[in-house]
């Protein structure tokens, strides 16, 4: 299987979530299921069915996180420089609106556009890879064509 690129912070965040699920969420849901069973008839016990559903979600998420972390390739952006690549923090200016945006290009499992973490597989990130400061970038987005100029590239 292919390795999954990830920043150190992204890897750490997923490990923290996994630890929380295993040490807090899983024991709590097992206790909730046991309590719901004590209420008798399971066929009409909404608490029991809700707890089982939540348990299923938790177990699925644990399996997913273990799989992702097992394939993770932690990349340290601070050891990089040059053109835009994985881990770069890029400041762009929209050539139509003059609005500045700053994003860090990260792995798929740590991406969060509201926090400025851009998925490496997104159209914008794919268009930025290999570009340098001062370059103009044309991006085809679901909202139409966008033009950006690369103002700054930082590896931290």
UniProtKB/TrEMBL annotation:
Domain of life according to the entry: Bacteria
Span of domain Transcription elongation factor GreA/GreB N-terminal: 4-74
Alphabetized Gene3D superfamilies for the sequence: Transcription elongation factor, GreA/GreB, C-terminal domain, Transcription elongation factor, GreA/GreB, N-terminal domain
GO molecular function, one term: RNA polymerase binding
GO biological process: one example: regulation of DNA-templated transcription elongation
Residue ranges of every copy of the Transcription elongation factor GreA/GreB C-terminal domain listed in the record: 81-154
SUPFAM superfamilies listed in its UniProt record: FKBP-like (SSF54534), GreA transcript cleavage protein, N-terminal domain (SSF46557)
Keyword annotations of the record: DNA-binding, Elongation factor, Protein biosynthesis, Transcription, Transcription regulation
UniProt record similarity statement: Belongs to the GreA/GreB family.
PANTHER family xrefs: TRANSCRIPTION ELONGATION FACTOR GREA (PTHR30437:SF4)
NCBIfam families: greA, PRK00226.1-2, PRK00226.1-4, PRK00226.1-5
Role description: Necessary for efficient RNA polymerase transcription elongation past template-encoded arresting sites. The arresting sites in DNA have the property of trapping a certain fraction of elongating RNA polymerases that pass through, resulting in locked ternary complexes. Cleavage of the nascent transcript by cleavage factors such as GreA or GreB allows the resumption of elongation from the new 3'terminus. GreA releases sequences of 2 to 3 nucleotides.
Name this protein carries in UniProt: Transcription elongation factor GreA
Gene: greA
């Amino acid at each position: 299987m292919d390795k999954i690129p990830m920043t150190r912070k992204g890897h750490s965040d997923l490990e923290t979530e996994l630890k929380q699920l295993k040490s807090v969420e899983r024991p709590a849901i097992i206790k909730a299921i046991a309590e719901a069973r004590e209420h008798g008839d399971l066929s009409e016990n909404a608490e029991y069915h809700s707890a089982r559903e939540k348990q299923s979600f938790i177990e699925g998420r644990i399996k997913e996180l273990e799989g992702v972390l097992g394939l993770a390739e932690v990349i340290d952006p601070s050891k990089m420089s040059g053109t835009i690549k994985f881990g770069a923090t890029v400041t762009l200016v929209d050539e139509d609106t003059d609005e500045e945006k700053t994003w860090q290009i990260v792995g798929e499992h740590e991406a969060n556009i509201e926090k400025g973490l851009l998925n490496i597989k997104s159209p914008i990130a794919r268009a930025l890879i290999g570009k340098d400061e001062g370059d103009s970038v044309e991006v085809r987005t679901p909202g139409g064509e966008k033009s950006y100029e690369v103002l700054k590239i930082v590896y931290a």
